[in-house]
Structures are given as C-alpha cells and as structure tokens.
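It is worth pausing here to work through a concrete case rather than discussing structure prediction in the abstract. The textbook approach is simple: state the sequence, then state the predicted structure, then interpret. We follow exactly that order.
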Amino acid sequence: MHDASPKKSEHRSEVPKPPWALTSLLREKPSSGDWGYLGSGTPVACNEKELAEKARKSGAESILLVWTPNHPLVQTVYEVPQIADSVAARLKKELWNRIGASLILFPLLGVIAVLVREDRRQREFWILILAIFVLIPIVDAALGLARLKRQLPTMLVAENEMIRFSLWESRMPRWLTNRGMWLLIGVYVIQHVTGIQDSAAKAGLVKSAVREGDWTRLLTGVFLHAASPLHIWFNVMAWRVAGKTVESLMGWWTLAPLFLVSALCGSLTSLWWLTRGTSIGASGGICGVIGCILVLGIRFRHQLPKGFARGIWGSVAYTVGMGLAAPNVIDNGAHLGGLIGGILFGGVCIPWNLKCLPTPSSTLRRGIATVALALLGAFAGVAAIRLFQGR
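Step two, the predicted structure:
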C-alpha cells in the first residue's frame, strides 16, 4: 500500500511569519555594556538592577526596548524574564493612574450634566463626554487590573506583540491617512471662515434636500463637522488610528475605496433611519474603516497580536455605547451603515487565498483607488464651494 503522507507534507505550505514577528524588526544590541535600554532612541548601558528599576517607571520615563547579555538583539521590556516583575508593577501603576485621572474628571463633568438637565440634547452630550472620559476608561482599566492579576504571562506576551506591531506600523507609509486628516481639518477651518452655523444647511446631509434630488449631499456632508471642536477632534483621532492600521496592512489602495463606500453606506442608512433633519461628520466612513479592521482581526487572528481583536471589539462597543447614551446627538444610522459597509467591503476585498499580511497591491486595485480618491476630492471641493456661496 502506498503511503501518501510524505507527499502531503511536500505540498503542505507553512504560513509565513508577519513582518512584525520577524527577528529583523529589531536591531542588534549596542556593543557597550551587557545590560541597557534605549531612551528616546539613545542607548544607555547599565547593570541588571538598574535596568529593572528603569523598567518599573511609567509615564515619560518609561522604556520599551532593552538589551541583555544572552540575546544578540534589542528586545522589548515585555520579553525579558529578569525584569518581568518590574514591568508588571509598571503596568499596574499605569492602570491605577488611568483610574485616578478619570475620577478627577467625574465631579466636574457630573455637575455640568446636572446643570444642563433641562436641555435634552445638552444633557445627552455631557453624559456622552462623561462616558468617554470617565466611565469607559475606568471599566477598561479595571478589566486590565483583573487580567494582570490572573493572567500576567499571557498579558506580557500580548503587550510584547502589540509593541512589536506598533514599531512595525510606525515605519509604514501613511500617505493617505495624513492627507485625509488635513483635508477634514481644512474643511472645518473653511466652515468657521464662512460661518459654521449655516454650514450644515449649505452642504450637510439635509434629508429633505436629498429626497428632492440633491444627492451630492450624501457625500459633501461627510466632510463637515459641528461647531464644537470635540466633534472634529474625535473624528480626526479615530481616522488617524484606524486609517494608519488599514493603510499599513492593506495599503492606501484599499483605504480610499473603503472610506468612500463606507461613508456612502452610512449616509444612505442615515437617510433611511432618520427621515428628517440634517447629519454631518465623517464618522460613518470611519466606522467602516473600523469594520474592515474587525474583518482583518477575525480572518488573521492567529497572526495579528493577541490584543488586536480585543481593541477592535472595544472600538465597536465604544461606538455602540456612545449611540445609546446620546441618540439625539449621535447619528446611529450613519454609524451602523458605515460599520456594515466596511465589514462587507473587507469580506469581499480581502483575498481569501491570502495567508499573510500585508495584502498585495495590483494594477486594478490601484486604478479603483485612484478613482475613489478623485471622487472624494471632488465631493470635498463641492462642499468647500457651497460653504463659500451666499456669503
């Protein structure tokens, strides 16, 4: 009888390591001293005791990369057994500091929420701020303390993987992410120059105007934001984080059509969900970017860092929670539609035969992305022109 097992092993291909897991990610250790650390990129030699003490410090003095006598390369602080206790103490201190900082804000935000209780929209807005800056950070830090107590080795491994991923991600180009951020800020400045109180009526997603045939508002409203700087700040920060992740893992040629499709899905869902009123903001498109990252986290859960999927699920829960806390302030239809659009986009556009990230490029993908970029730029231009009209 013929044994087919050797033949099977010949055709069995191993899944390649992702670039953030390669040893070449970190450089060789400096020749000076057996022990040391990189402080702001500068190598500092020390002994084992001094390194353990340095690894214990948090905040501006915290270090991430160290070297030891028994390893040829620089390592992260989370993969050196000799300083594991110091690193655990640092993590614990950082989590408690996060709880303390949130508790300091609680009385101030709570008093404001009580003072504006007669105004429903204002009350919901400040409850939302209270949840973002106080309740969510406290819950997240408390869960982190529980994991630190029960699963220290697992948590150190997860932190090590996330640091390596962050180091790799920081070296990747973020061409579209940066330009998209400045585009949103630029249109926001134009809103203030031309009169931000009237900007939503001029170029926002006015539902009645869309039904009368002004379909361009489905995308011009994406580039507008409310007068409160918190709206643009939250969206720009979310775009910066989610955008660079997609651009690093899937390229700008994926990020451009992803945002376009998600923003359109968000606007259409908002039009169906909330039949009247006006909506503005890029959050529908940004939720789509998060939805695509969620697909990546599920598809490549064995390659991406252990904390990656948890962070994305946290972002989804965060968005849902904000919508529930302030339904009269948050456009839940745009968020939900954008999220579903991004999930579907990721399911269709991530090659099913792909074994390792990042995803490859192609002439077709770049062509589609160029068209998407042109459309986004055109609708941003239309929004700006409308803002200047009627001054």
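Step three, interpretation. The chain has a mean pLDDT of 88. The beta strands are 35-39, 42-46, 65-67, 75-76, 205-206, 278-279.
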